[in-house]
Amino acid sequence: RGAGGEARTDWSHAPTERAEVASFLILQHYWYWQQSGDLTPIKEHWDYLRRNLLGQRVDEQGRLPFHGDETYRFPGYQIFEATQKEPTDWVSMDLLSADSAWEYIAAAGALHEWAEILGKADEAAEYERLAMKVRDALDRDFRMDDRGYYAPAISDFSGEQYRYPFANVNLSPVWLNADLRWWKPDDTYPLMSALTAMGWLWKDSGTVKTTPGCAYYVGMTPGYAVWNLAAKRHGSLDQAIEGLLNAASPAGEYSEMIAPDDNPTDKHWGKNRVRPWEGGINAEALVYALTWLWTDPVSRTVGLQPWTVPLKVRNIHCGQSVLHAEFTKAGEGTQVKLRVEGEHPLRVRMLSGEVVELKPGQERTLETGSPGAWVSTVGPLQPPSRPFSYGEPTFAGKAKTIVVTWSKGTFAAYRGRPSPAAIDTKIAFPPDYLAAALYDRSGKRRADTLILDVSKYPGHCKTAEFWTKNEGKRIIDRFTSLGGKVEQHPNPQDKPGDLFGK
Q1: Is the Cβ–Cβ distance between 232 and 171 less than 8 Å?
Q2: pLDDT (tens place) for every residue of the chain, 502 residues total
Q3: What is the DSSP string of 348-359?
Q4: In terms of Cα–Cα distance, which of 187, 188, 197, 190 is closest to 163?
Q5: Residue 29: left (phi > 0), alpha (psi -120 to 50), or beta?
Q6: What are the E-state strand segments in 393-443?
Q7: Residues in CB range of 297: below 8 A, 6 or more apart
Q8: What does residue 337 show for φ and ψ, rounded to 5 degrees?
Q9: Global pTM exceeds 0.85
Q10: Is 445 helix (H, G, I), strand (E, B) or coil?
Q11: DSSP labels for 44-112?
Q12: Rounded distance, CA 90 to CA 168, Å?
């Protein structure tokens, strides 16, 4: 009970989603507050919001699992189960997740911002510390400087990085504003890494593949692409906007799964699963691209700069007031007419530097620069001109015992073998990755022993035939012909499922 004897709920041990969903519960409050400036629901839900951050499953190193039901999970699995050919490079949800980490950082940033406003200095410091722990883990374990982007996922026990770019993970940090708003504001790597990853996924249609080997994508992927290009004012933004609009259904909706031809798929998951999540992200991305809109309810400031003119923007909410803006071409520049309605003044900040404050009912016309003056010289994006190279294991040539397994326990059982290393079958590695661990390109053997734990779980995006008939068998046969020894793990466990608990 509270100090006055009133009944209170103790949220400190309430069941919490292990990742992702818990962060979005916080972020939904944040996005509402950004437009309304209303702290009432935040105050009323404070202990619950705090629990949604603190209850997530962050390990001692600052890493998080996938939630397991991300919107992009099932489409890839459905395609693989239907074809057993593609995609062979879809990310597994049984790995440690860069996506969950960015969402956690964004959620911690929201709580940090509110805590400072509400005078909770100790909590604000706690949220910053927690966010930095997760961010440091991203830079330590997920960042791939040789490739120029973050690994979307890593093994939970071997430390291997899933190296393929994955659109919905690599493009989400900038959309979340997870890094650029609160943490390490001088670090542009998250934005530039997103553009680097996008370079491997770009299509002439102005949309992106999910992975280098899979041109299917889920409904909000075009919105992520537009958002990242808009943040950079990239020269390919017009093409991405066109791609986003063309990917909609004739009714203007976005299905959960879109085919390589940018139409809702009629063969695999999701044609009739039209949801506001996908359409909402895409609509917001379009507004952001056209206006570069941002709002700050504390200072009651609205920022905007048109991507193209003429352009009318109405009903921009910031606190209890609303801004209307109309941009028209004026000579070499742009003229904007501003009007505010509501209960309090608003400050309007243009990218070109002009700042104007308007009281409710007041109108103001001013000159601003040409939209083209802020277009980045980077680009245009082009579809990849060469196949994606996954590369060799970091331990290639050093490890003498290679254990191929999904299980931390199985690998631990062979720790006493000479120079052991693991290949995690939860990572959808290409055949060449396995081969490089066993022998070099000249045919010289690198390892002495290969231990296989694949009889119950052949690996993510792999079938049993990979090991008994196809590429895996050919690699193993060559290894044995070079004098290598192969052992089957005698106590194979069931396939991975929920490695991190409910």
Answers
A1: no
A2: 666 777 778 888 899 999 999 999 999 999 999 999 999 999 999 999 999 999 999 999 999 999 988 989 877 878 887 877 778 999 999 999 999 999 999 999 999 999 999 999 999 999 999 999 999 999 999 999 999 999 999 999 999 999 999 999 999 999 998 654 455 555 677 778 999 999 999 999 999 999 999 999 999 999 999 999 998 889 999 999 999 999 998 888 898 889 999 998 877 766 656 678 899 999 999 999 999 999 999 999 999 989 989 999 999 999 999 999 999 998 888 899 999 999 999 999 987 778 899 999 999 998 887 776 666 666 789 999 999 999 999 999 999 999 999 999 999 999 999 999 999 999 999 999 999 999 999 999 999 999 999 999 999 999 999 999 999 999 999 999 999 999 999 998 888 875 444 4
A3: EEETTS-EEEE-
A4: 197
A5: alpha
A6: 401-405, 420-424
A7: 33, 34, 35, 36, 37, 318, 319
A8: -105, 125
A9: yes
A10: strand
A11: HTHHHHHHHHHTS---TTS--B--S--TTHHHHHHHHHHHSSS-SSPPPTTSEEHHHHHHHHHHHHHHH
A12: 11
> What is the signed CA dihedral for 306, 308, 311, 315, rounded to 10 degrees?
-30
Question: What are the two backbone dihedrals, phi and then psi, of residue 319, each rounded to the nearest 5 degrees?
Answer: 70, -135
One-letter amino acid of 366: L
**Structure-block tokens of residue 127:** 């949220």
Helices H / strands E in the chain, number of each: 16, 19
d(CA 93, CA 110): 26
Report the amino acid identity of residue 254: Y
> How far, CA to CA in Å, does 56 sit from each of 13, 63, 66, 125, 429?
11, 10, 11, 18, 29
Cα separation, 353 vs 471, whole angstroms: 59
Q: Tokens 């996922």 sit at which residue?
A: 153
| Residue 265 neighbours by CB under 8 Å, 6+ apart | 216, 255, 257, 258, 259, 271
Distance CA 131, CA 121 (A): 15
Paired tokens of 283: 């609509």
